[in-house]
């Protein structure tokens, strides 16, 4: 893996409606984008066109809506293997279910209470929802479902103008009552109604605004930012699972920094990820330590730059980490969350954060559990946070074989991610220091490669297994066997492979020092 280098700013998706200072040019680009998007959608999903004819023959309207339409405008439609379409219709749910049952290979009730029916035909999956004009209980985010009468009214109730566009089927008419195409041309995020009304109905939309800043590279309109700031505490009525889903999508986007800065700047992060704004420590008067918040965002960007191309095999012996990688990005974001709790001002004006990696690992696990992350992801991220400073204890290059073995063994399958996290954690502007740290880590990786080839470090085990330990000590299963195993593992890490005879001699010597040993241990 190459040494760390300056991190390029991630590129935004290129829309089919480029922004222009010339209003006439923008209008022409919008018109061209509309025509191109319709053509792309109908080519992309011919099954949807056929379904539109089915609904039309039954006297009902049908339209493609939401993400697929927006992505067609942006030129982001993926391949046929990913055909998953959202549609809306004038038909009521019972009629929708009847038509889908006749059209598809299978159909299912996604949510009768919400007017949504799903179906599959070949590789195409559709979800069809009856026009809605919902009312919301302002004490929760659950809508009181009211079916609507028109496509335009259905679109106006949606979260953002860029998601409030539709293509009628089967005639291909483009419907854009809220100016979503215009907003994509200007790369700005607006709500169809006032943002206060929209967010009062569904506070999760505030998280989505940050997500779209990350995934689509859109600038959030000032009025939307103002509403998010004023209504930040409304996010507390949203379930942790839904917040986590939006946070994951934000972090996996092209511009996670933009989304995170929006959450922090509006105060929403105080409610969903308070450890992040807490990193905005007051700089001491002598500027003896970095702005931890800015450092963290830079580390995140540098970690992203070190990910391997999407789709590359990784996470195993090949050392690759295909992007976007949620575990690496979470670890980069949370690696220093223990610093505020461990900050100490030392004599002479210095600042220390002793053991912040240990404290941070515990804080990371607590926050991720609160956000309902799965246990495996939580364990991996917390472990990386705990290990992220391990390298700096040996940054001078004094790596013994024992230290290398322990580094690899403690990281386990997380080693490729730990490599990237550790390199990313160097944000110094001192080029000499940065070069020295990069060279030291190059040296460590070379040592790891050499020892892996010589000793199969990826699966370090004692020279004797559990059965051999019990036979040597003439004991049955129990705590003694576990202690003996750990003793032999420590010897293996310190000295490398011993061989069975030497390991058995060491085991007997250890056993002779144990208070519970029999008087005549068997060899």
Automatic annotation (TrEMBL):
User: Which stretches of sequence are listed as region Disordered?
Assistant: 1-23
Here the segments flagged for biased composition (Pro residues) are 1-16
EC number of the protein: 2.7.7.72
Which cofactor does this sequence's record say it needs?
Answer: Mg(2+)
Q: Which InterPro entries match?
A: Bact_CCA-adding_enz_type3_sf, HD/PDEase_dom, HD_domain, HDIG_dom, NT_sf, PolA_pol_head_dom, PolyA_RNA-bd, tRNA_adenylyltransferase
Which GO terms of the molecular function aspect are on file?
A: CCA tRNA nucleotidyltransferase activity
Name the domain of life. Bacteria
Q: Which UniProt keywords apply?
A: Coiled coil, Magnesium, Metal-binding, Nucleotide-binding, Nucleotidyltransferase, Transferase, tRNA processing
Point out the coiled-coil segments of this chain.
434-461
HD/PDEase domain location is 288-456
Name this protein carries in UniProt: CCA tRNA nucleotidyltransferase
């Amino acid at each position: 893996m190459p040494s760390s280098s300056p991190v390029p700013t991630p590129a935004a998706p290129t829309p089919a409606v480029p922004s222009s200072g010339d209003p006439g040019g923008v209008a022409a680009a919008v018109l061209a984008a509309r025509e191109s998007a319709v053509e792309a959608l109908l080519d992309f999903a011919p099954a949807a066109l056929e379904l539109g004819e089915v609904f039309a023959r039954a006297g009902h309207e049908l339209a493609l809506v939401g993400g697929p339409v927006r992505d067609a405008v942006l030129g982001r439609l993926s391949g046929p293997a990913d055909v998953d379409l959202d549609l809306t219709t004038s038909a009521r749910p019972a009629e929708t279910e009847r038509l889908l049952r006749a059209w598809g290979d299978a159909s299912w009730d996604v949510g009768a209470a919400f007017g949504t029916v799903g179906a599959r035909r070949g590789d195409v999956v559709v979800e069809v929802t009856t026009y809605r004009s919902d009312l919301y209980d302002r004490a929760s985010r659950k809508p009181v479902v009211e079916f609507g009468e028109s496509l335009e009214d259905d679109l106006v109730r949606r979260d953002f103008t860029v998601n409030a566009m539709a293509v009628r089927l089967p005639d291909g008419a483009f419907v854009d009552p809220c100016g979503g195409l215009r907003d994509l041309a200007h790369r700005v995020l607006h709500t169809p109604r006032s943002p206060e009304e929209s967010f009062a109905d569904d506070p999760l939309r505030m998280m989505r605004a940050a997500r779209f800043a990350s995934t689509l590279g859109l600038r959030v309109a000032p009025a939307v930012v103002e509403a998010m700031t004023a209504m930040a505490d409304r996010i507390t009525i949203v379930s942790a699972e839904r917040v986590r889903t939006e946070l994951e999508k934000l972090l996996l986007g092209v511009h996670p920094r933009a989304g995170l800065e929006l959450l922090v700047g509006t105060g929403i992060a105080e409610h969903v990820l308070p450890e992040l704004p807490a990193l905005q420590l007051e700089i001491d008067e002598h500027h003896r330590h970095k702005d931890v918040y800015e450092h963290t965002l830079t580390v995140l960007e540098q970690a992203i730059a070190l990910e391997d191309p999407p789709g590359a095999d990784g996470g195993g012996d090949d050392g690759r980490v295909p992007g976007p990688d949620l575990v690496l990005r979470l670890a980069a974001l949370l690696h220093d969350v223990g610093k505020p709790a461990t900050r100490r001002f030392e004599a002479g004006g210095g600042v220390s954060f002793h053991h912040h990696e240990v404290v941070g690992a515990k804080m990371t696990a607590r926050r991720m559990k609160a956000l309902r992350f799965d246990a495996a992801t939580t364990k991996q991220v917390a472990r990386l946070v705990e290990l992220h400073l391990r390298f700096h204890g040996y940054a001078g290059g004094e790596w013994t074989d024992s230290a290398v073995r322990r580094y690899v063994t403690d990281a386990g399958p997380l080693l490729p991610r730990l490599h990237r996290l550790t390199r990313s954690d160097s944000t110094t502007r001192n080029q000499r220091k940065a070069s020295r740290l990069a060279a030291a880590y190059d040296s460590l990786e070379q040592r790891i490669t050499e020892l892996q080839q010589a000793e199969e470090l990826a699966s370090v085990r004692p020279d004797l297994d559990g059965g051999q330990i019990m036979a040597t000590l003439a004991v049955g299963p129990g705590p003694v066997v576990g202690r003996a195993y750990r003793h032999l593992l420590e010897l293996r890490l310190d000295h490398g492979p011993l061989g069975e005879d030497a390991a058995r001699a060491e085991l007997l010597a250890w056993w002779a020092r144990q208070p519970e040993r029999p008087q005549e241990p068997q060899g």
